[in-house]
Every structure is written in C-alpha cells, then in structure tokens.
Design brief:
This protein is about 50% helix and about 10% strand. The chain is of the alpha+beta class and about 375 residues long.
Length: about 375
C-alpha cells in the first residue's frame, strides 16, 4: 500500500484546527478550561499551529482517575488544549488508518461500533458450529512504542506527523517503551491501528473468513474444534513474535449454540442476550441511581436521563423479561412512597423507542406498581420477547 505524505499541511489548516476545537468541546462547553480556551480561540489556535510546526507544543498533562465499569481501569485524560491537538491530528490521519482496516474490525470506525460487531458475530454464529474467543492481556499497557512507530512509518511518510506520534507515545509509559494512555483519542486509534496486522494475518494468511475484532477482543468461527485449536496456536505465535503481545491465559473453543461472551453480551446463533456481568451492572447502576434520587442528590429529570441511557443499552439485545423484572423489583422496594412522574414517562418513552429485534409477541400486561405508574399511549410499541 502506497505511503501517504504531506499530512502536516492539512493538519495546520485553520479550518481543521477550528473543527478540532469544536470536536474536543462537544458535550463539555460548561467546563472552565473549555470556556477559557474559547474566550481566546484565535490566539490559542495560532499557538497550536505554531507549536505543531516547530514541535514545541506542550503535551503530557494528564488528569488521572480510576473507574470500575465494568472492571478497574486507570484513565489518563489529557488537558483540553491537548485534546484539540489530538483531534487536529486524527481529522487528517484517521482516513489513512481506515484504508488499512479490514471489514471486520469494528472499533474506532465510522459506521461500525460495538453493536455492529455483535450483529456480525450473531451472523457468523448462525453459520458455524464452533467458535474461538481470545483477547490480549493488558493490551493498552502492553503496546510497544518502537514497533507501533515502525508500523506507522509503513503507511505515513510525513516526518513531522511521525515525530508528533513519537512525542505522544513518549508522554506515557506503563513500562519502559510500552503503553498507551486509556482516555486519549489518539490512543484509541493507534491501539486499533496496531492490531491491523493481526487482522491481515488472520484473514489473508490463515484464510479465516469468519472473524470479528473489536479492539483487543476477537473471535474466529469454524467447522471443527481441532481446526480452531490450530488457529489459536498460530495467532498466539504471531502476537508474541510480530506484535510483542501476549493473549490472556484463558482462550477457549466451544460450540456456538452454548453462547459466547462478547462485548457485554452472550452471543447465540442469530441473537444475543446480556451476559451475567452486564446483568449485575444493570442492577447495581439502577439501584445506585434510585439511591441518589431518594437522597436528593439528583432531581427527577437527572434520574430519568440516566435511567434512559441505561435502559437503551439493554434494548440492543433480547432482554425484555430481565429488564421488566428488575424495574418491577425496584418498584416493589418503593411501595408506600409517593409515585413520581418521570418513571412513568420513562416507561412510555422506552416502549416508543425503535426495536432492534423483530416483534414476536406482545408483552404480558402487569399490574402497575405504586411508584411505577403506567400511562400507555396509542403510539406505544411492544418490545420483542427474549429468546
């Protein structure tokens, strides 16, 4: 594939820098650092442009915090000014990465994403009796800088762009010469780009047509378990020798009819449900939201927004009965308290959202709980029953 050059000229274009600012500020307009940057926008963008040209723009100022969703992760969020720089680079470099990507890579790509990967996995599970599931041990902290930069140089010949990627990599190290900070835009794209060599190896060398990857979670489907065991050995050798990575010590081959945990779902031939971890998260989060509302930390609108987002995730799979059971159990715990309108609105809006699965049969009518008033309207649509 021909290498791409003259990228820095496009990066420092005033229109690209303004676009980078608006992308970085999306959803964060009320933050003090964003307001300060916007108040001096032209001066800040001029400073960014000159800093990009001479390589002196300051980077590496991370805000560090820990999240536990679904597992413990340390996030390194760059300062706002650096996020603008990241967007400026990726506005121009992302199309170069896209040219290298195979069809069945789904992370950090327009028109792809988590649910597209799940739907693709459902289709492969319908056609093949066995699957192989793997992921990489501590992937973001394990990416070797030198090998990643060498891979970038095979696709980009602009020395200024390569120098900036080198600076960004050097600004964070989980161990000497390794690691990408979780929470950075460039980290997401670089991590996905680095495993492009794995995609090519599996699709072109091993000739595995039924393959899906979402970042470092990837699966292969086949006709026989022995065939997939051989594929596993080939992949593990490639990861170690070529990419300098190691898989988690629990890869496994199983029958597709038994289901496969993938991206928070349990994937079966042609459909998916929530896996056990996602079900626990749903219950915990819903209970936590209710507690914050009862304690007066959230008002009714805030509670409704959060619960709608939580429910929307479960609507992507067959989870109607589970969702109803949890919502009704929450209502039972609240008997004796005054009903609140937003939850009734939530139930109505939830029923009116588009359904991802074809309708099979209408849900059974439940008697309304005191704290979960139902106000059905003529525009409601029943959800698909769980398989």
């Amino acid at each position: 594939m021909k290498r791409v050059g003259q990228l820095m000229t496009a990066v420092i274009e005033p229109d690209n820098l303004r676009l980078a600012f608006w992308k970085a500020a999306r959803g964060k307009a009320d933050r003090a650092e964003v307001q300060r940057y916007r108040a001096n926008l032209e001066a800040e963008l001029t400073r960014l442009r000159l800093g990009l040209l001479d390589g002196t723009y300051p980077i590496g100022r991370y805000r560090r915090f820990v999240v536990h969703d679904p597992k413990r992760r340390t996030i390194h969020a760059p300062a706002f000014a650096e996020r603008v720089l990241h967007h400026a680079l990726m506005n121009v470099c992302e199309p170069c990465f896209e040219r290298w990507a195979v069809q069945d890579s789904y992370a950090c790509r327009k028109g792809k994403g988590q649910w597209a990967a799940v739907r693709r996995a459902e289709g492969f599970a319908r056609r093949a009796p066995f699957f192989l599931k793997l992921d990489i041990r501590k992937y973001f902290d394990s990416v070797p800088h030198e090998r990643l930069l060498a891979q970038l140089a095979r696709h980009i010949k602009d020395s200024a762009i390569l120098s900036w990627f080198g600076r960004l990599l050097a600004s964070y190290q989980a161990s000497p010469g390794r690691g990408l900070p979780i929470g950075s835009l460039t980290s997401q794209h670089l991590a996905n780009f680095y495993l492009g060599r794995l995609d090519r190896f599996v699709k072109e060398r091993l000739r595995c047509a039924a393959y899906v990857r979402y970042m470092d979670d990837f699966c292969v489907w086949g006709e026989r378990s022995a065939e997939l065991a051989a594929v596993r050995r080939e992949i593990e050798a490639f990861l170690a020798e070529v990419l300098g990575l190691s898989p988690k010590p629990t890869p496994y081959v199983n029958r597709t009819e038994r289901g496969m945990d993938f991206l928070g779902c349990r994937v079966f031939p042609g459909y998916s449900t929530l896996n056990s971890r996602s079900r626990r998260r749903f219950r915990r989060k819903l209970a936590r939201y209710e507690s914050r509302f009862e304690a007066g930390q959230w008002d009714e609108d805030c509670l409704q927004r959060h619960v709608q987002t939580l429910v929307a995730f479960t609507r992507q799979v067959s989870a109607f009965r589970f969702r109803q059971q949890v919502l009704e159990a929450l209502g039972q715990r609240s008997i004796g308290l005054e009903p609140r309108e937003p939850r009734g609105q939530l139930e109505q809006q939830r029923a009116e959202l588009p359904v991802s699965e074809p309708e099979q049969e209408p849900p059974v009518e439940h008697e309304p709980q005191p704290r979960v008033p139902r106000r059905p309207s003529s525009g409601q649509r029943p959800e698909a029953e769980e398989n």
